[in-house]
Amino acid sequence: MFPSILRNVKTISLRQRVRYSSSLSSISETKLSGLVFRSFSDDPFLNLSIEHYIFQNAPRGTRVLFLYVNRPCVIIGRNQNPWLEINLHAYREGKLPHGMDFDFVRRRSGGGAVFHDHGNVNWSVTCDIEDFTRDTSAEMVVRALRRQGIERSRVNERHDIVLDQGKSAQLVDADDTHVTRYTGSEATPFKVSGSAFKIARKRALHHGTALLDSKNLGQISWFLRSPAKGWIEAKGIDSVRSPVTNIGMDGKLFSQIVEAEFRQQHEVSTTDSPVIDVDDSCLSIEGVEKGYGELKSDSWRYLQTPQFWLKINPKAMGEFKLGVKHGVVVDLQWIPSNTSYVALDLSSQELELHRIESWEKLLQNASRLDPQLEAAPIAELAHELDCLLPVPLLQSP
């Protein structure tokens, strides 16, 4: 049965392709039980805005599969800290491998930081909360992979998709998407697709990034390594690092098999509901344009950062502590080696962390508020802060 469905997806979706933004803008009026959208844009800000528009506007009773590919970018979760999750300092200094540029995006869902490029396909499913579990959509993807012979694929306890690396085969239920013949403790599985979620207004969104044929696999840890890690105490969500690998599959094939599995699982025919292609023209939709502008804004990317403290204890400088709340420096404390405790409330200064162009100038201004700070090794402290909390200087959105 499945091969015939896959053949239909290949032929009918090409013949009956629906394009233009009007199909997306009218999504709230659909009477269909299932829709499939595919993006022809690689702009991560746009694709996440289209995904959010679908989440907000698809009516109850309608499941939606959305497939898209992003250009190189680092995407952090809604409640994460870019200074803790991203290698901002190296980016500022122009130390990207192979001269590559990448975008920094804060998405609206939770979860950890991920790296996207043209070797990934991102998949998302929106549905009613009554039809949602944190495993359902990942299980759908695993079934699609197994039909293509990727028998080591399974859903793990974190709702991610992994490839087991065990060598000894065991007897298991072939229909169980949470175990394979190679599941065991003898080898750590490799993650090939993470998961993130958003739940609101009785609707649920589950999306993931499938590593298929990324040429930057060896650089992912570089993109997601911050020099401030170990120095920051933070609220919010820390990413859980896992070994990763490519599935080894063409992006078009992956999209086809996931679409076919979605259609089979939810009885969505290609005749009644052909693939809807979306692209940059969707920026003409007010809700998409609004979401796009929000995702690219500094207030969203930086000022949504949960509260954190940077603590450093450089040699011969005493202890230095910087408090940041919603991306704004609110507190500076210094316990020098040879003088009394200094604490400054900087909340009234409105010092947005991503706009601090000179730590040395900031510390010099702070020293005028408390004479004890005049004895501080300002140049040395400024150098430490510049390395750990650099001004991002990312490309203008």
Automatic annotation (TrEMBL):
Residues 59-270 form the BPL/LPL catalytic domain. CDD domains: LplA. One of its GO terms (cellular component) is mitochondrion. Gene3D superfamilies: Bira Bifunctional Protein, Domain 2 (3.30.930.10). One of its GO terms (biological process) is protein lipoylation. PROSITE patterns: BPL_LPL_CATALYTIC. GO terms for molecular function: lipoyltransferase activity. Pathway: Protein modification; protein lipoylation via exogenous pathway; protein N(6)-(lipoyl)lysine from lipoate: step 2/2. Catalyzes both the ATP-dependent activation of exogenously supplied lipoate to lipoyl-AMP and the transfer of the activated lipoyl onto the lipoyl domains of lipoate-dependent enzymes. Belongs to the LplA family. This is Putative lipoate-protein ligase A. It comes from Microthyrium microscopicum.
